[in-house]
Specification:
Helix content is 42%, strand content 18%. The chain is of the alpha+beta class and 452 residues long. This is Parvulin-like PPIase.
């Protein structure tokens, strides 16, 4: 349901329902009430007195959601997927926070599956199995059977992943029937948006990932500390997409926090200022904004309706050699120098296979690589490389040494931007997602949830 090119920022916070207000008994004496706005229905004293012990560090990760059990096994198997996505580099403290977030996600998932079933829009087994096979092939390069073995090895299961798929598909089915038909976008709105796009031609667009954590005046220090810990984990190599899916309280959590291509003026001023000097691959935050804190990750940037050299389609040949196991640094250096001399002497792409065979190197060709999909250092080198020439050698003793030879380049055409229908679809998607957030909030509010 998420469009990859959003016209507006979708950081609607998750509201809390009655099930989440497990404060214990509050002594509401004659203490002053917190300032919460004229329209707030809550009447919370400024200095509540807690009756009974409430240790925030003690949680039991199981729940019964409208009579359906979320087991500890469900939580641990889903958690194993996240830990694996982060290269198993998760501290004990972070693991506990992730465990509780996984439980909250499983509760939401259960509510979505239940609501879809009640509305007669569940995801059938054929839908789930087909999506599972596609995920295995596209995301992991494996068959369904190999994927199942991998999941078992990391402590998860195909049942856990299929349940997540079932929840997402069921929710999409439900939104498609109960929400999407009631979202209307006028032709005038789309025309106006297209005119604004044309007027902004040449200005920079940013593709940004966001993790949004909601905060109130009362819990702001704790939320900020939590955001700092997430940033620390991300800088240590954690997966931004995995953390966004688990922690972000914006509707874009389902797509790993991806806001799509936007202009900085579309963001709150604080976030726009933070992103101004960012380069692709950089993090910023936590940044305080209205309603909480945001962590930003700059995925990429480009100029609106302007051809980007990095969209050039490259035809490449990779020539590589591997080092024998246990080779000394001196021997590896000598072999690498021999390889570099061979690569420099190659007379065009047609000569690559013959020259490589003389020193036992291998050649792999690919005619469909976008320059922007390559590491940053190689992008610059290849875009300035004449056809038939090679990059300087790169690699390591463990991975071997390789060069890339440029055999052709198709330069990108100037983009005319999204079509009328594409833009209308993008605006509709944005509105559907906002209504979906409200829908889920209402499900949480009305749910009967027992924590074990």
């Amino acid at each position: 349901m998420m469009s990859k090119l959003k016209m507006t920022r979708k950081a609607a916070t998750r509201s809390f329902g009655s099930a989440a207000l497990a404060f214990g008994a509050l002594a509401c004496a004659t203490t002053p009430v917190l300032a919460q706005g004229a329209n707030s229905p809550l009447n919370i004293p400024a200095n509540p007195v807690m009756f009974g012990k409430n240790d925030p560090n003690v949680r039991r990760a199981t729940a019964i959601v409208n009579g359906e059990v979320v087991t500890g096994t469900d939580v641990e198997q889903r958690l194993a997927l996240i830990v694996s996505a982060n290269g198993n580099k998760v501290s004990g403290e972070e693991l506990e926070r992730l465990r509780m977030q996984v439980l909250r996600n499983l509760i939401d998932e259960t509510l979505q599956i239940q609501e879809a079933k009640a509305a007669d829009t569940p995801a059938d087994d054929a839908q789930v199995d087909a999506t599972y096979e596609r995920v295995a092939t596209q995301n992991f390069g494996q068959s369904g059977a190999a994927m199942e073995k991998y999941l078992t090895r990391i402590g998860s299961s195909s049942a856990s992943l299929k349940r997540q798929i079932r929840g997402e598909l069921a929710w999409q089915n439900l939104l498609r029937r109960n929400v999407q038909p009631f979202v209307n976008v006028s032709e005038g709105e789309v025309t106006e948006m297209m005119q604004r796009l044309q007027a902004s031609k040449g200005t920079e667009e940013y593709r940004i990932g966001e993790i949004f954590l909601a905060a109130t005046d009362q819990n702001k220090p704790q939320v900020f500390a939590n955001a700092e810990k997430i940033v620390e984990q991300l800088k240590g190599g954690g997966s931004f997409v995995a953390y966004a899916r688990q922690y972000s309280e914006a509707s874009t959590a389902a797509v790993g926090g991806d806001l799509g291509w936007i202009r900085l003026a579309q963001l709150p001023a604080e976030l726009g200022a933070a992103a101004t000097n960012m380069q692709p691959g950089q993090l910023a935050g936590p940044v305080e904004i209205r309603g909480g804190f945001s962590i930003l990750y700059l995925i990429d940037k480009r100029q609106v309706l302007t051809a980007d050299p990095r969209d050039a389609l490259l035809s490449l040949k990779q020539i590589s050699i591997d080092f024998p196991k246990g080779i000394s640094s001196d021997a590896a250096g000598k072999k690498a120098a021999e390889f570099a001399a061979m690569a420099k002497a190659i007379k065009g792409c047609g000569d690559a296979e013959g020259a490589a065979a003389k020193i036992g190197a291998t050649v792999v060709a690919n005619d469909q690589i976008k320059a922007r999909d390559l590491p940053g250092a190689l992008q610059e080198t290849l875009l300035n490389l004449p056809v038939g020439q090679t990059t300087p050698p790169f690699g390591s003793i463990d991975e071997g040494v390789r060069v890339l030879m440029l055999c052709g380049r198709d330069d990108p055409q100037v983009s005319s931007g999204p079509s009328f229908d594409e833009l209308m679809s993008q605006i509709e998607d944005d509105r559907v997602n906002k209504r979906a957030q409200t829908y889920l909030r209402d499900l949480r509010r009305d749910a009967v949830i027992e924590y074990n």
